[in-house]
Here is the input.
Amino acid sequence: MTDDLRQPSDLPAAAATSEGLSEASAQRQSNDLAQFQTLFERMDEGYCVIEFIDGPHGPLSDYVHVLANPAYYANAGIADVVGQKVREMVPAEADAWVETYRKVLLTGIPVRFERELERTGRYLELSAFRIDPVERRQVAVLFQDVTRRHRADQELRELNETLERRVQEEVEQRLRTEEALRQSQKMEAVGQLTGGIAHDFNNMLAVVVSSLDLLARKFLKDDPQAMRYVDAARNGTQRAAQLTQRLLAFSRQQPLRPEALNANRLVAGMSDLLRHSIGGAISLEAVQAGGLWRTHADPNQLESAILNLAVNARDAMPDGGRLTIETANAHLDERYVAEQVGVLPGQYVMVAVTDTGSGMTPDVLARAFDPFFTTKEVGRGTGLGLSQVYGFVKQSGGHVKIYSEPGQGTTVKIYLPRLLNDQEEEIESQRVPLVSASQGQETVLVVEDEPAVRASSVDALTELGYRVLEADGGEAGLKLLDSHPEIALVFADVVMPGMNGRKLADEARRRRPGLKVLFTTGYSRNAVVHNGVLDPGVDLLGKPFTLDELAAAVRAVLDRAD
Here is the structure.
């Protein structure tokens, strides 16, 4: 007999054991039910069981709540839902709820989603699963109120959209402002041009009208046929006069509002605007002079002038480059201003804008300040930027000069009068006396490709007492150097066609070690050095230079020991 076979005498004991197991199982089930009931009543999330029923809208077209915990009301905001049909609870939104839960019932695939319960305005996060078997037609739903989180997310999205919209509006406003600035500058230049034309045209019309009146009065008053022609001419001149009056009205200019101005602070304050205007491919450098004098100018117009020059420089550097803005104190003496129209000698504050762009040819340079003249393609420029700069500087009693060479960039120097307590007396007292013509006796070789500039340099050095030889380029300069061993200094332009000034100096010093060389250029000193055209430590005299500055520079180079 095996152990699995029990004797009849063992049955009472087995029965007692089975009865004990049933009691233990029942106790466990009772405990589980109590725990479930406690969880059901105390959980924060809402919980319900819905049972699908057939309705007027077809099979499984409605459901009734058969079970719901107390948190249902706390989360959904609807009380006493047990026994309620969804189409009675929320008739306006019942179709969407039925469709979602019926799919769970039929497929058995649980679902998680978020939806607004429109009746109460609560936004719910829900999960639903089928209670098997499917024949029970029941779906369990667990959910919680996430209205606060949803509103916070919505506010964040709206804030982002608002921020994007504000950025777009700011960009559009900036574009409108820039367009208004360009239009204002265009109208200012057009006004100046049309105002001058209208004034001159009115003068001519006055002659015509007067002549017609005299003709009619003295010779034709008794000739009806001739008077018809005179009256027709008078009518034409009257209409022309009305047109010119409109042009004169259009050309009215806003007065300048000058004030004591520190150009260093103005340039520093424009750095962000300039960087935005020129773009990331162009580096911006500011070289500010210590002890810079103040000037008396309209700060808004000066900012506009600098911005115009920066934009022109940007367009001349499509592949990137360097933009240098330099300030300095400057003296313009009588010898320099004698060759300039409308420029007074004295002390000035200089603001120079230099780029490393394409530069200008001589014919372009000659017309650079002309209104409407531009080398840009159609739609890219009005041709009025430099005209605006010129008009502002001249109206402020200043001077503007452009130095440019093709392929080497451009420097535009603005000179504004220094602000003095007693300007007339101060200018007179600060004017530097002319240098005596007997300060030098050495031989100087001037190498400059521009005939007018070369002639002025030769005349200036001759005036200073030096013996001067001249050459129009590097190759001609080397020939003179070989044939004139008495040459003590070479005064050479940096940028010349063929052999430039630096190559000339290197070859000259190879042939004549220890030869003194002084460079000159139309670019600002700092810009040239920083742009790498010249190495640090070379002797450089920037154009335009006064006779005193030329004398001092030449003497310093000649007198310096090797």
Observations:
- Residues 335 and 356 are 30 Å apart (CA to CA).
- The chain is about 50% helix and 20% strand.
